[in-house]
Amino acid sequence: MSPSLIPQCVRTADGSLTLKDADCAETYHSTFGALTESQVVFLQNSGVEERLRQQRPTRIFEVGFGTGMNFLLSATAALAYRCAINYTSVENRLLPRESISTILRDTFPDAHDSIQATEHTIAKTRNQQQSPGASQINQYTQLTLLLQDALQTDCGTATFDAIYLDAFSSKNNPLLWQASYLEKLHSMLAVEGVLATYSVNRSFRDALTVSGFDWKKHRGPPGKREVLTAWRRQ
Ligand SMILES: C[S@@+](CC[C@H](N)C(=O)[O-])C[C@H]1O[C@@H](n2cnc3c(N)ncnc32)[C@H](O)[C@@H]1O
């Protein structure tokens, strides 16, 4: 990433930090509360927190690793509930190390060891220009970071209990919100799995329906009236 494209840090309304993308001017999380959005839209709405509370090991697939906030939040929950997660995240444009470190260290001041392990995995992925495979981040968390375009991801027959669809807006990134891509996510979701995201726009909801999902709107976190979850139509 050239120096002129280094993303700028933004303090959001709940006190947590996020970044503003220099290209599309979108923030990586909501300016009304980055951590709150991550907690409500992804960890809670996806059912991941409830599964961990019930001691059910959980496989998560994320579209857009970004700052790593969703990941570290999930890893911290796995540790708190003492229940395993297997987290696979795809990212086509890894942020500079300093940007990710600034966000994670500010947001999770007690997660020093997990952050160091995450930084190590990111560095290895960046150096090899490919995934080094699954890395142990804390006692209960494995991370597989895929450095590639999400449209090209092939997870074979692997399925996931939760999908975090967090890939910038459909305005700036339309391909990841269309039926051709959602069909792929549908095939990756376990029978009782949940896809969680912030978009509720009409064309996205129609594309979900066409791709074989049922969906439901939920009350959103501050700054977003509604968000959405989707699951495989029976
Ligand atoms: C909203 S941010 C993700 C925020 C992230 N989940 C977090 O917790 O910080 C969107 C991310 O999706 C990535 N992205 C956008 N299009 C992509 C694609 N086609 N394949 C892989 N990653 C993509 C961007 O580079 C960016 O890092």
Let me know the number of strands.
Answer: 10
Q: Give me the CATH superfamily.
A: Vaccinia Virus protein VP39
The order of strands across the largest sheet is 5-6-4-3-7-8-10-9
Question: Low-confidence parts, pLDDT < 50 over ≥5 residues?
Answer: none
Helix percent band: 25-40%
Please indicate the count of domains. Answer: 1
- Radius of gyration (Å): 16 Å
Question: Topology of this structure?
Answer:
Layout (H helix, E strand, L loop, with lengths): L7 E4 L5 E4 L13 H11 L3 H6 L4 E6 L5 H13 L3 E7 L5 H11 L4 H17 L6 E4 L2 E7 L12 E6 L13 H10 E9 L4 H9 L2 E7 L6 E7 L2
Bound molecules: S-adenosylmethionine.
The site of S-adenosylmethionine has 21 residues, from helix 3 and strand 4.
Question: How would you explain this protein's 3D organization?
Answer:
The protein has 234 residues and is an alpha/beta fold. The protein has helices spanning 34-44, 48-53, 69-81, 97-107, 112-128, 179-188, 202-210; strands spanning 8-11, 17-20, 58-63, 85-91, 135-138, 141-147, 160-165, 189-197, 213-219, 226-232. It has one domain (38-232): Rossmann fold. Helices cover 33% and strands 26% of the residues. The chain has an 8-stranded mixed sheet with strand order 5-6-4-3-7-8-10-9, sandwiched between helices. A two-stranded antiparallel ribbon has the order 1-2. Helix 1 packs across helix 3 (69-81), helix 4 (97-107) runs antiparallel to helix 5 (112-128) and helix 6 crosses helix 7 (202-210). The chain is globular and about 40 Å long. It starts with 7 loop residues before the first strand and ends with a strand. The model has no long low-confidence stretch (mean pLDDT 95). The chain binds S-adenosylmethionine (SAM). The site of S-adenosylmethionine has 21 residues, from helix 3 and strand 4. Residues 28, 62, 64-70, 90-93, 149-151, 166-168, 173, 176 line the site of S-adenosylmethionine.
